[in-house]
Amino acid sequence: MIGLLSVELNRFRSRRATALLVLAAVLVTVAFVGATAWNTRPLTKADRTDAAAQADLEGQRPDLLQEVRACRVNPNDFLGPDATAADCEEALVPSAESYYPRQALSLSRVLVKEGIGLALIVTVLMVIAGCTFAGADWSSGSMATQLVFEPRRSRVWLAKAAAVTIGSGLVTALVLGGYWLALGAFAQARDIAVPSGQEIDVGWHVVRAVVLALGAGLGGFALTMIFRHTVATLALLFLYSVGGEIAVNLLPFEGAGRWSVGNNVIGWLAINHRYLDATIDCTPIQRCGSVQVMTHPEAVTFLGILLLVAVAVSLVWFRRRDI
């Protein structure tokens, strides 16, 4: 089995389609690093001067000055029971920081947007890698030849699945690890302190993203082993991504958003992912809300069950169906 796995790993590594997908993942990561670094670059003197001028101009508005004077008369009505007249100007008049054109680099803010976006792109690329790896054997007819040398179909399927899974995990770990290490280097160069809590959040995010990519590559492989055609699998996944999410929200029972693959994927990557569940109808007297929270255990359970079903069906189908 080890020898067979080694052969499949080498085949996965040497395929041109895999190389192109890995190159795409690297290029996308480099683009994300460049965009994040540029959008969080330190403010120039001109930026600060312009922000101060805008804040000063805003602070001279007659209606704002009138509101500040009214606040000083009754600060408790404006700012709460513990407020004083001295707090009014600071609370109501915008500061220069409010007009800064960009924010400083913060790993926690990057994680919410760019980090999750990059993880999703890499995951999609790993799905394609898994699909093409399986589809190439069927389209070229080499599957029958491989089974002549190794007639035990379960061993062949498991070796191929393991190669795709390992390869997808390694690629994802390398590109995402490189992304966050590069941002950490930028933060250090800019003398930005990164709290330990942010480092822990980023570390666990990378772990979850790698686990997702492992499952995505394996899932793409398993589905293609059923349909025996790369295009068929990718078309099915595309159709679901377009219409499946809409269909989930049209289901005739409340809480259907819980079973959306998209919500569960984001719920697995993000921290306390909140999503709008259109199937929940709340009346004014009910204590409920349409905004729900997806936890990591809920997300990984749902996605894990889908993956296990796909793997089981694929393995049984491959063992029993004629080649």
> How many discrete structural domains?
2
Radius of gyration: 26 Å
Number of continuous helical runs: 13
Extended strand count: 2
Largest sheet: 2 strands, antiparallel
Strand content: under 5%
Which H/E pattern describes the elements? HHHHHHHHHHHHEEH
Helix content: over 70%
Name the strands of the widest sheet in spatial order. Answer: 1-2
Integer average pLDDT: 84
Class derived from helix and strand content: mainly alpha
CA-CA gap between termini: 22 Å
Give the low-confidence spans: none
Shape: elongated
Overview of the structural elements:
The model has no long low-confidence stretch (mean pLDDT 84). The chain is mostly helical and 323 residues long. A two-stranded antiparallel ribbon has the order 1-2. It has helices at residues 2-14, 16-39, 45-59, 62-73, 75-79, 87-92, 107-140, 142-149, 153-189, 196-227, 230-249, 261-269, 296-320, and strands at 273-276, 291-294. Helix 9 packs antiparallel against helix 10 (196-227) and helix 12 (261-269) packs across helix 13. It has 2 domains: 2-41 and 104-320, no CATH class; 45-99, no CATH class. The chain is 74% helix and 2% strand.
TL;DR?
With 323 residues, this protein is mainly alpha-helical. The chain has 13 helices and two strands. The mean pLDDT is 84.
SSE topology:
Elements lengths: L1 H13 L1 H24 L5 H15 L2 H12 L1 H5 L7 H6 L14 H34 L1 H8 L3 H37 L6 H32 L2 H20 L11 H9 L3 E4 L14 E4 L1 H25 L3
Antiparallel strand pairs: 1-2
